[in-house]
Structure formats: structure tokens, C-alpha cells
């Protein structure tokens, strides 16, 4: 999936708290603190939760000790993600001992997976709410306040929260996520998401365009359209008698303004179409960057994973991307040590990475998830040290490719969207290229702001950052 400042899609994003709402003291009856884990969709959901709570008179705080309600928006994708949340819950329990009356709520995928277990058996939380039940949060809070068990983990076939304007609390004011669909119908055998997020459904296209337009009007200059499988987006606009595919949606979003950058994530190799690639080629403001998770380079393993494409199909897609969008940035997800994976299978994954030379890759070793097809059908038979050794091998290979990718950009000029001050110095800007690479450059004497575009000549690079200087101002 795409990166926002190098970190959006990464499920390893952990425990980021949101900024407080702008508020007057005493304006809100209670305060909540929310910490988010997992993928960009979860972070986007926290913004919906903030909006629902805010409408009911709750204000947010960045300081957990000040909060009346603590929410953890959780991830179940790997066992480690759940362990991190459990550890954090234990810390909050000790905070609650000092502040009786404080309520702790678990939201998101782990809430959906474990249902009332953490509330009833382990007594770690007071409220449990799954990803499709956030509208019931205010009433659940009321129930928990009277000492009742407050649980709602019902999955929905049509909930998209399309009518809720998310509150952008942890925002640089330039880049925003926009959810375009929820759930997933793909049933990859290793993956817990279809069970925690339910069936796939697309959000009303009109509400998406409206949200994007509002973001643009309030100064945002980049949107990332989010879904587990964006290429299967499908909406029938009865008002205008139009079928909106993902390619058409992308075009509509791009037309909001040429000054708005458009990104999207995640594409499934079986579904990404020429129509999408041609739409990307037609609009300068659709960023030339595709996250195309492969998961394995071995046909045998891909079949066990139920990914429904072959290595050859995947390579043909990559070739097509490079033909229609020369220089397009490409990233992937890769899993090592899936059930029955042999050294030969591993070598095929390695060779595929050699072929694709990804600009960015998220690499994991397989973590068996309860209830998934793989857990029910196959033995998790690759020893942990083998999984980890194979992971280290592909990480080492990818480091070479990503450094080469950075080095290729040196002595070239790129259009950069300014996103923030550099973390290291207020005298430098932090921005990104169309291809999603971070660029740091001195502000010099120019009167620029976040959200402005500049052409930057790249003088040098590190493994993760391009370093340059302004050559032209583009606004
Ligand atoms: N829908 C996207 C896709 O199909 O690529 C993203 C799915 S998931 C949120 C993000 C990544 O986590 C997957 O692409 C996969 O590489 C990894 N992942 C999912 N389940 C896993 C598991 N059981 N063990 C290790 N990695 C896993
Ligand atoms: Fe999981 Fe596969 Fe759906 Fe991605 S496409 S969320 S990996 S089931
Ligand atoms: Fe995302 Fe983790 Fe759920 S990756 S969809 S928050 S299991």
C-alpha cells in the first residue's frame, strides 16, 4: 500500500495518538484518547470514530492520563500486532486503577476477532466494538458507564460511514486518507482481514468526491484512496445513470483539481486493469506509484495462499505497468515461511524480487492466524528460525534495490509537494515526489508554505531520503 511520509500502509505503525480537537476548556462533557494500530484503513477509521464521538459531545485529548475514555483501535494481522496491544492494555489498566471511572475500549480488528473474550474472560476492557459498529459507540459508552457489558461486533454488508465527515486529527493539513470501500472478499488463506472486516462493499462515489472536494477547499493537496482491494471498487450512480469503476472514480477524483495529488492503495494483481493504468497515464496529478503485493514468487505457494494469480501473471502485470507508465514507482508485500515453503520456493520469491527491483517492500514472516483458511487446512511447518532467516535474506536484497532506486534519482529534478518542516531542522522542508520518495531541502529565502509545489534538484541521497535544493517554484 502507499506510504504517507514513508509510513501509511505499514501495519507496523503502532500506537500513534491523535492531536486534540481544537476546543475551549469545559466545552466537552468527557474526553477520549485514541491510539491506532495497523493499516491506513484503521487510522482512517479512527478519524470516523473521532467524528462520531465529537458529535455526541466528547472531546479528544492527546494525554491518556487526562482521558475519561481510552480507545485502542487494534490490528490482528500478525500475532505480534496483538501482543503489542495486550501489553498496552495492561499499561492502561494500571492507569485506570489510579482513576476509577475511566473506561477502556477496544476497537478494530482485534475487537472483532476476540469479541467479548477480553471483556468477560480477561477483564482487560470495558467496551468492545468491531469495525462496522462505530455508530453504536455513544450508546455503548452509556451502557459501560452503568456497569453493563458493552459489546457490538456485528459486521455489516452495507456500512461504509459514507455520510460521516472524518475529523482529521493527526494531520499535516496537506495529505489525507479517504476510504472508498470496506471489507474484503478475497479470502487469501493466510489473512484474517475477511473475518475481521467482513464482506467487501463500495462507498457511494458522490460522497467520496464531496469529501475530496472539501479536503481540497480546506487546503489539502494529496488524497490516498483506501481499500483492501481498490480495483474491485464498483458503484452504480443511479442519479446520473452511471457505473463507477475504480478507473472512473480515480478520474473523477483527479478532476477535482490538477493541484490535488491522488494516490491509492491497495491494488490486487488479479484485478488491476489497463483502464486504471491508462487513467493514471492520462492525469499528471495521479501519482505514478503502485503498491502491488505479491506475497510469494512460487506458483505452488501462491496457490496455497489462494492468491488466484501465478508468478507469470504477476510479472506480466509488472511489465505492463512499466510499459504504460515508464518509471512508475513499484512496491510490494512479501511473506516468507508460509506453510510448506521450501528453499526452492524461497529462491523463487528471491528471484522475483531480483526481477521486479521494488522501490519499497514490506516483508514479513508468516504468522498463523486463528480461523483463517491456512490455519484450518495446512500445517504451519516452517521452523521460526527458517522463516526469519529467509526474511533476512529478502530484506538484504531489497535494501540493495531500494538504495539503487534512490541513487537513480540523484542529479535529476522532481516536482515535490511540501508536507511539513523536516523533523531534524525547521530550516528545511520535508516533501515527497510523485513516486513517493521523501525529499528534504533547505527553505532558503523562498516564502513557501505546506501544500506548495516546487521543483527540487536532487544532489545526493541516503537509503531512505533524497536531499536536494529548490530550482523552481510551481504554484
Ligand atoms: N489487501 C492488501 C493485499 O491484498 O495485499 C493488504 C493486506 S494486509 C492488511 C497487509 C499485508 O500483511 C499483506 O499483504 C501480507 O503481506 C501481510 N500479512 C497478512 N496476513 C499475514 C500473516 N498471517 N502473516 C504474515 N503477514 C501477513
Ligand atoms: Fe487479506 Fe487477501 Fe483481502 Fe488483502 S486481498 S485483505 S491479503 S484477504
Ligand atoms: Fe488493517 Fe490490521 Fe485490520 S492490517 S484491516 S487493522 S487486521
Automatic annotation (TrEMBL):
Cell location: Cytoplasm
Catalytic activity: N(6)-dimethylallyladenosine(37) in tRNA + (sulfur carrier)-SH + AH2 + 2 S-adenosyl-L-methionine = 2-methylsulfanyl-N(6)-dimethylallyladenosine(37) in tRNA + (sulfur carrier)-H + 5'-deoxyadenosine + L-methionine + A + S-adenosyl-L-homocysteine + 2 H(+)
Keywords on record: 4Fe-4S, Cytoplasm, Iron, Iron-sulfur, Metal-binding, S-adenosyl-L-methionine, Transferase, tRNA processing
Domain TRAM: 407-472
Cofactor: how bound: Binds 2 [4Fe-4S] clusters. One cluster is coordinated with 3 cysteines and an exchangeable S-adenosyl-L-methionine.
InterPro entries xref list: Elp3/MiaA/NifB-like_rSAM, Methylthiotransferase, Methylthiotransferase_CS, Methylthiotransferase_N, Methylthiotransferase_N_sf, MiaB_methiolase, rSAM, rSAM_horseshoe
Domain (Radical SAM core): residue spans on this chain: 170-404
Documented EC number(s): 2.8.4.3
Binding site for [4Fe-4S] cluster 1: 39, 75, 109
Residues holding [4Fe-4S] cluster 2: 184, 188, 191
Top enzyme class: transferase
Pfam families recorded: Radical_SAM, TRAM, UPF0004
Keyword match tRNA processing: yes
HAMAP family tied to this protein: tRNA_metthiotr_MiaB
Function: Catalyzes the methylthiolation of N6-(dimethylallyl)adenosine (i(6)A), leading to the formation of 2-methylthio-N6-(dimethylallyl)adenosine (ms(2)i(6)A) at position 37 in tRNAs that read codons beginning with uridine.
Record text on subunit structure and interactions: Monomer.
Protein name listed in UniProt: tRNA-2-methylthio-N(6)-dimethylallyladenosine synthase
Originating organism: Sediminibacterium roseum
Amino acid at each position: 500500500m502507499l506510504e504517507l511520509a514513508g509510513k501509511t500502509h505499514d501495519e507496523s505503525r503502532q500506537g500513534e495518538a491523535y492531536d486534540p480537537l481544537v476546543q475551549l476548556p469545559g466545552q466537552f462533557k468527557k474526553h477520549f484518547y485514541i491510539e491506532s494500530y495497523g493499516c491506513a484503513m484503521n487510522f482512517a477509521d479512527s478519524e470516523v470514530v473521532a467524528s462520531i464521538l465529537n458529535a455526541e459531545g466528547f472531546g479528544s485529548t492527546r494525554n491518556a492520563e487526562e482521558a475519561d475514555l481510552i480507545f485502542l483501535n487494534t490490528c490482528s494481522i500478525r500475532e505480534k500486532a496483538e501482543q503489542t496491544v495486550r501489553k498496552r492494555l495492561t499499561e492502561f489498566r494500571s492507569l485506570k486503577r489510579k482513576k476509577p471511572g475511566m473506561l477502556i475500549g477496544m476497537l478494530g480488528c482485534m475487537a472483532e476477532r476476540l469479541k467479548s473474550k477480553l471483556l468477560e474472560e480477561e477483564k482487560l476492557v470495558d467496551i468492545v466494538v468491531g469495525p462496522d459498529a462505530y455508530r453504536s459507540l455513544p450508546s455503548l459508552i452509556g451502557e459501560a458507564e452503568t456497569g453493563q457489558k458493552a459489546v457490538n461486533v456485528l459486521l455489516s454488508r452495507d456500512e461504509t460511514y459514507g455520510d460521516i465527515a472524518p475529523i482529521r486529527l493527526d494531520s499535516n493539513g496537506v495529505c489525507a486518507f479517504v476510504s472508498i470501500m470496506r471489507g474484503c472478499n478475497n479470502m487469501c488463506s493466510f489473512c484474517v482481514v475477511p473475518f475481521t472486516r467482513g464482506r467487501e462493499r463500495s462507498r457511494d462515489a458522490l460522497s467520496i468526491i464531496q469529501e475530496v472536494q472539501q479536503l481540497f477547499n480546506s487546503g489539502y493537496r494529496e488524497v490516498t484512496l483506501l481499500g483492501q482491494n481498490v480495483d474491485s471498487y464498483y458503484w452504480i450512480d443511479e442519479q446520473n445513470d452511471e457505473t463507477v469503476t475504480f478507473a472512473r472514480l480515480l478520474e473523477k477524483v483527479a478532476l477535482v483539481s490538477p493541484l490535488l495529488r491522488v494516490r491509492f492503495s491497495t491494488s490486487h494483481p488479479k484485478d488491476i486493469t489497463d483502464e486504471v493504468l491508462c487513467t493514471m497515464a492520462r492525469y499528471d496529478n495521479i501519482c505514478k506509484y503502485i503498491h502491488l503485493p505479491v506475497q510469494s514468487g512460487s506458483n505452488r505457494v501462491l496457490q496455497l495462499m489462494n492468491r488466484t494469480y501465478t508468478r507469470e501473471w504477476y510479472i506480466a502485470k509488472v511489465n505492463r505497468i512499466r510499459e504504460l507508465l515508464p518509471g512508475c514507482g513499484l512496491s510490494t508485500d512479501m511473506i516468507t515461511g508460509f506453510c510448506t515453503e521450501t528453499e526452492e520456493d524461497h529462491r523463487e520469491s528471491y528471484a522475483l524480487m531480483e526481477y521486479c527491483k521494488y522501490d519499497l517492500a514490506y516483508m514479513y514472516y508468516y504468522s498463523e492466524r486463528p480461523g483463517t483458511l491456512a490455519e484450518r487446512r495446512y500445517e504451519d511447518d516452517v521452523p521460526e528460525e527458517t522463516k526469519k532467516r529467509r526474511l533476512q535474506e529478502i530484506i538484504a536484497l531489497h535494501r540493495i534495490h531500494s538504495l539503487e532506486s534512490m541513487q537513480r534519482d540523484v542529479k535529476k529534478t522532481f516536482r515535490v509537494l511540501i508536507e511539513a518542516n523536516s523533523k531534524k531542522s525547521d530550516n528545511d522542508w520535508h516533501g515527497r515526489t510523485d513516486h513517493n520518495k521523501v525529499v528534504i531541502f533547505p527553505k532558503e529565502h523562498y516564502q513557501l508554505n505546506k501544500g506548495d509545489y516546487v521543483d527540487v534538484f536532487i544532489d545526493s541521497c541516503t537509503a531512505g531520503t533524497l536531499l536536494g535544493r529548490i530550482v523552481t517554484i510551481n504554484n
